[in-house]
Amino acid sequence: MVEIILLVVLLAFVAAVVIKSIALIPQGEAAIIERLGSYTRTVSGGLTFLIPFIDRVRARIDTRERVVSFPPQAVITQDNLTVAIDIVVTFQINEPAKAIYGVDNYIVGVEQISVATLRDVVGGMTLEETLTSRDTINRRLRGELDAATSKWGLRISRVELKAIDPPPSIQQSMEMQMKADREKRAMILTAEGRRESDIKTAEGEKQARILSAEGDKHASILAAEAERQAMMLRAEGERASRYLEAQGQARAIQKINAAVKASKLTPEVLAYQYLEKLPELAQGQASTMWMIPSQFGDSLEQFARAFAQKDEEGVFRYEPNGVDEETREMAEPENIDEWFSTASDPEIAAAVAAATAVANKPVDPELHEVKAAKKASSSRHSAPDSTTAEIEGSTEGSSVEQSAIDQ
Hints:
This protein has helices spanning 2-21, 96-101, 106-123, 127-132, 134-149, 168-263, 267-281, 296-307, 325-331, 346-359, 365-378, 386-406, and strands at residues 22-35, 38-49, 55-62, 66-76, 82-93, 154-165, 309-310, 316-317. By secondary structure, the chain is α+β, with helices and mostly antiparallel strands.
């Protein structure tokens, strides 16, 4: 029985020795090994053998990056306003031995240094600067913490201000200020919109007046040009009319002269005509007395002796000269149908066509081009328009009229 008890005790002692001589350290942790109370080494991530009852694990340190959030801290700003600020610190233990032997509690140390640095930084800023200078505060906090905790084996990777809570009254005032600021900007934007609208309206009216003035100017210019061309055409017409009238009078005189020559008038007929016209000469209102010269018979006798021949009976008889072929053709009637042609002059037709084209010119050229393309595609095989026919007719009539003038 005693041997069994001794065997059990021996097995228990062997098991305890084995357990004390082996330590399993997980990945992401570091263990501080002490031998007889003094620091020996730091092990991490694996199986570690220890001397039983001599070596021991002092502490296990988490070497992963840790995020610690500290409770809100009351901080007074430069303008004597108390704000509550929450801090989030991200750090990692690079030297576990320093974290164990260099400081009693590195979490409390990081918190206290953060609060002290935060009060120092925020104390030199106003509330508005504090709310808008988060990056500056974060950088200063990280620099101070990194410098202070480097001897503890810590590395401060990031410091963030999670929240900055001003007092309720200040927060209400800020909300009212923001509301007033937004209303102010809304009123400014509304005023600017109205101003832009008025400017655009004025610009539109200005452009409309300019276009109207341009239209009136072009209309006046076209009217003046039309009046000038009309006056020139009237002058040309009057000149042509006078020329034609003079040509007609000359032609009439030629026709009368040719007719007289072709009729072979004798002095006796001329004398009879002279005597026949004498009563008409005496019918004037201012003719109270009219006398026939006594030498009238002598003049006729001398004319007859000069141009007539004495026949067998002793009477002087006038024998007219022969009529040549040119005089006979001149005395023949002519075709006067072309004199009464009412065809327009080509210049007048061209001027009317140009004025019609200007009057029909659209205001929007792009819309007119689209309509013209549609119209051209629908009437591609249609007959020529009436304007071309009128112009061609006017040209033909004017050519006939010009030929009449030349004749």
